[in-house]
Design a protein that fits this description.
Elements lengths: L2 H13 L2 H8 L3 H15 L4 E2 L5 E2 L1 H25 L7 E7 L1 H6 L1 H11 L3 E7 L2 H9 L5 E5 L7 E9 L1 E5 L20 E5 L4 H12 L5 E6 L2 H9 L4 E5 L4 H6 L3 E3 L8 E8 L6 H12 L2 H5 L3
Parallel strand pairs: 3-4, 3-5, 8-9, 8-10
Antiparallel strand pairs: 1-2, 5-12, 6-12, 7-10, 7-11
Helix pairs in contact: 1-2, 1-3, 1-4, 2-3
């Protein structure tokens, strides 16, 4: 058994295809088949059902779980050995929401990459619940997201605070108001974020507490999509204040205060408790926690 064979099995489990796995690994299909056959011969079991679509057998699923642990251990060992030269370097996988990625990360990453050019960062856009799960299972190293829930398996640190605000097009009937009671939202069309997002869960909770049923005409997965629909005057929306700074400045959106929405929500960095922090990750967290709130929410 070797690491290449383990990587091949893991890739097949993701693609469910010998051919696609070969393309991703720059191997011929016969070479992929030979690696899997070698593993099956060594462990005297069938790991893959080769009928279409390709699936893992029960033995294959057990083998996959341990193969992932082995490769993770090897990567961890490489990071620790690289850290011996005391030069922060490596690869950070960071998960965050679309709005945070667009509004906040450019400022953070431009500074960080200028200071530490040997550290590579890959950004994964996902919902808050996906970020929590991905940090917990090790799919990503750290997350920057809304800290609505405290999880004992995760370390967290607040970076800044955000609110969710009602926004409309300048041509919307409500645009002439600076403040409206939340009851006014009962009769207007709302463009909402999808149910699994942090912002949507907050809004649903507010409506539930008030026994209100909003008129939802559209659900979208990101604040960027929501903003574009509101600009077209297809409805009003409740989204992150941080995400609309540019639109408010340009006048393409109008923000209207609603008393029940005026709650500050912490946004922060999370990572798994007890995990080894590579030099790259340690330096990134150190710099991130050391930034003042104004550096996150300052003008674009």
């Amino acid at each position: 058994m070797n690491l290449n064979q383990l990587e091949t099995l893991i890739t097949i489990s993701k693609t469910m295809s010998f051919r696609k796995a070969g393309e991703l690994l720059n191997l011929t299909q016969p070479a992929v088949s030979a690696q899997i056959k070698s593993l099956e011969d060594e462990f005297k079991t069938v790991l893959i059902d080769r009928n279409q679509p390709v699936t893992l057998t029960d033995s294959g699923r057990i083998f996959l779980e341990h193969a992932e642990l082995i490769l993770h251990t090897v990567e961890d060992m490489k990071e620790r050995l690289n850290d011996l030269n005391h030069t922060p370097q490596g690869h950070i996988h960071l998960g965050t929401t679309t709005s945070i990625a667009i509004q906040i990360l450019p400022r953070v990453l431009s500074y960080f990459q200028n200071q530490f050019p040997l550290i590579k960062t890959t950004i994964h856009s996902m919902t808050t619940s996906q970020i929590m799960h991905s940090v917990e299972n090790g799919a990503i190293d750290i997350g920057i997201t809304y800290l609505f829930e405290k999880q004992p398996s995760l370390e967290s640190s607040v970076l800044y605070y955000d609110t969710f605000e009602l926004v409309v097009s300048p041509n919307h009937p409500l645009s002439r108001y600076a403040h409206v009671p939340i009851e006014r939202l009962h009769d207007i069309s709302l463009i909402m974020l999808s149910p699994e997002t942090a912002g949507r869960r907050f809004v649903d909770q507010i409506f539930k507490q008030l026994n209100m049923t909003p008129q939802i005409v559209m659900e979208l997965s990101s604040s960027e999509e929501v903003k574009r629909m509101v600009e077209l005057n297809l409805g009003a929306a409740i989204i992150s204040k941080m995400s609309i700074a540019n639109e408010l400045r340009l006048g393409t959106l109008k923000m209207i205060k609603v008393h029940e929405l005026e709650i500050s929500h912490p946004v922060g960095v999370i990572y798994k408790s007890g995990r080894y922090l590579s030099s790259a990750l340690h330096q990134f967290l150190l710099d991130l926690k050391g930034m003042q709130e104004i550096q996150f929410i300052g003008s674009e």
